[in-house]
Every structure is written in C-alpha cells, then in structure tokens.
Amino acid sequence: MSLTLKADKPLEDEIRRVASSYLKKARCTLKKQPEGPHEAIHAARKKFKRVRSLYRLVASADKQFQKRENERIGTLGRGLGSTRDATSLVETARRLTGAASTVEERMALERIHAKLEARRDAITQDQATDELLERAVTVCDDALAAVRDFNLSCSHKRAAEILGEGWRRTGHKAAVALVEAREAGNPECFHTLRKRTQDRWVHCRFLAEAWPSALDTTRQHARRLVTLLGENQDIALLTAFADTHHGEIGSPKDLAHLIAVMIAEGDRLRSEALPLAGLLFPENARADAERIELLWRHAA
C-alpha cells in the first residue's frame, strides 16, 4: 500500500488510509515481535512518529484532533522509550567503537558496548516490558478507532492550503531551532532541529505527488540530516547516562576513552549537520510553503 497522499483523492480519506496503515503495522509488530521485543519496540516507535508527523502536517484542519491524538500516541511512544533508550545506548556504543582512533579506545568501547548490551537484554526480559507491550497494543486499537472518526470535508483548494500551512509551520520551527543551535549549541536545540527534520523527511514522502523529483531530492537531504542529528542526539544521551551511571559504564579509564571519542565524533557530526540544515530550511518558510500549496493544487 502506498504511503504517499493521493492529490486527486479527498484529503480526509487519505489521512485515514495512511495513518491506519502505520498503526496496523505497529500493532502487528508489537504482537508478533519477529526480531525480539527491543526491535519490535524500535520498529513500532518509528511508525508512531510517522503518524504524529502526518497529523502535524494537517493540524490546521482539526487542531483538537491533532492535539488529542498527538498526546495519545506521544504518551505511548514515551512509555516505550525507556526500553528503546537502552537499545539506543548499545547501538551508539557500537558506532563509537568504529570511530575510535586508537587500539586502546577501541578496546575500551568494546567493553562498554558489552556492558550496555547485557543491561539492555536484562531490561527487555523484564515482565514489566511484556505488560508495556500489551498496553501499547491497546493504545494502537484506540488510535485506530480515533482515525476512523477523523472528519474533514473540504475542497482540493482548502486541502492544498492545509498542507501548505503544515509545511510552513515545520519549516519555521526548524529555522528557529537552527538559529538557536548555531548560537547556543546545546543538545536540546539540536534535538528540536532533528524532530522537525524528521517531519520534513516524512512530509516529502506524503506530498511526493506535488513535485516528485524535487521532493525526492529534499527527502534525501533530510534523511541525511536526520541521521547526523540522530547520532548526535544518541551521543548526548550516552553522555548523560555516563554522567549518572558510572558503574554501568566501566572503569574510569574506559570512561575517559569513551568521553574522548564522544567529543570528537560529536564535533564531526555537528560540523556536517549545520550547513546541510541551512540549505534544507530557508529563512522564508512562507514562500517555500506557498510553492507546495500551488503544486498540490496543480497535482489535484
């Protein structure tokens, strides 16, 4: 099933179709867990993020619906987050092992990776995780019922305006976050920029019929930026974990090697991410959105 919105179809039908598809896939993954619980949680959370991005794209059509469902699905995602965070720490340590510049650093990172992997496995084998997964399936059912009731009766012209406004809001928020990231450089600024870049990446797929070639290029750039900012955020999370869980990281010497690699890798990621973000999010978000609106009307 295509997860691209069809310009010649009623927007409300397309929103229901795409959102339902993501939610059903998330539910199936949580129930069957084909690659284990931690991979099921990771896959389901990605689907939930797509749904929330979709609802943000059309938020101006029904702000109450968007707010309610964003809270429902967001709470679900955060509830699964503690388990996912444990997996993220493992993946980050593995990536940093490859970035080590000396044999000593690499060996220290390998030991840290093994410790974090054992911690992750202990968390996902906990009975509380099973209960959390069961609750997540129930919330999926509730979200599916809610999207079936989504009601938006509008013309193609109004649909284009709604999508253009969603594109503009994402671009504006990203541009503000980019300025703050350049000036302050703290992890929260980069995290906000990453979230809005994820929206832009997903929105390019949803709106591909408006301008396939250009939006595909934008989507590729956004995907690269999401990767850079995601790895930067993972380093920030591992840094915070290391600050508060020294005993679960390893010896002081191993911790020192970890910190050195994280600093070097974080600097590299941010130096590549900031120029790319500047290209992706122009200061004039409104003009960019007006093009999307015009192209969607033409595609319809």
UniProtKB/TrEMBL annotation:
* InterPro entries xref list: CHAD_dom (IPR007899), CHAD_dom_sf (IPR038186)
The chain positions of domain CHAD read 8-286
Q: Name one Pfam family in it.
A: CHAD
Taxonomically, the superkingdom here is: Bacteria
What the entry lists under PROSITE patterns is as follows: CHAD
Gene3D superfamilies recorded for this chain?
CHAD domain
Q: Which PANTHER family match?
A: CHAD DOMAIN-CONTAINING PROTEIN, SLR1444 PROTEIN
Give the protein's recorded name. Answer: CHAD domain-containing protein
